Amino acid sequence: MPDRRQPDSPTDDNPFAAPPEGRPDQPWQPRSGGGGGGDGDGSGPGDSGGQRGPARWDPTDPIQRRARYALLAGMWGFFFGIFGIPSVGLLLGALALYWGISALRGKPVAATGEPGAPAGLDALGPAARPQRTAAVSGLVTASLAILLAMSSYALQLVYKDFYVCRDDALTKSAELQCNTLLPDNFVGEVLQVRR
Question: At what angle do helices 86-105 and 128-158 cross, to 10 degrees?
C-alpha cells in the first residue's frame, strides 16, 4: 500500500503544529478572519486594524443596556396589561419608554467629549442594528402596555358604579344584578358578570 503522507506539507493552517525550523515559539493567538498567511503578529489580510467583524454585546455600555432593558420592560409590561394587572403594566411601560428613548438618544462612553463624533446608537457602528431593534421594539411594547393600562383605568372610571356594585355584592345573584348598570353594547358584554 502506498504511503499517503506528504512529508513537506505546509502547516500554516494547523494552529497546533510546531513552528517552522529557525522560528522561535510564540504564544497562541486567534487566527485572523481572512484566513491568509499572517505574519505571526495577528495582522493577516482579513484583519483591519485589529477589528474582527462587528462589535459584540457590551454589558458595560449604558446605551446597549438601556436598549435591552426597554425591550424586556416593555414586553413584561404588555403581558401584565393583558393579564389584568394594569398598575405593574403602567410602571413597566413607563420605564421601557424612558430606557428606549434614552438608548436611541444617548451618547456612548467612547463618543463623549469628542467633537463631531457620532452620537447615540450610530456611534456603535455595526453593533447598532440589534440594539436599535431592541430599543424600538421596547418602545412599541411599552406604548401598548401603557395603552392597555390607561384603557383599563378609563373603563373603571366610566363604569365606576358597576365596579362598586360588583365588589360590594355578597352573593352571586346580587353580583348578577350589577349587569343592569352596563350599557347594551360590546363593552357591556365583555365586562358583565357571567352566570
Answer: 150
Instruction: Place 39 in a pLDDT band, splitting at 50, 70 and 90.
Output: very low
- pLDDT tens digit sequence for 96-119: 999 999 988 876 555 445 555 655
Give the global pTM: 0.60
Rounded-to-10 torsion of CA 7, 8, 9, 15 = 90
Residue 178 burial by CB count (10 A; 0-12/13-18/19+): exposed, middle or buried? Answer: buried
| Packed helices 62-82 and 128-158: angle between N→C axes, nearest 10 degrees | 30
- pLDDT category of residue 175 using cuts at 50, 70 and 90: confident
pLDDT tens digits for range 116-153: 565 566 666 776 788 888 899 999 999 999 999 999 99
HEC sequence for the chain? CCCCCCCCCCCCCCCCCCCCCCCCCCCCCCCCCCCCCCCCCCCCCCCECCECCCCCCCCCCHHHHHHHHHHHHHHHHHHHHHCCCHHHHHHHHHHHHHHHHHHHHCCCHHHCCCCCCCCHHHHHHHHHHHHHHHHHHHHHHHHHHHHHHHHHHHHHHHCHHHHHHHHHCCCHHHHHHHHHHCCCCHHHHHHCCCC
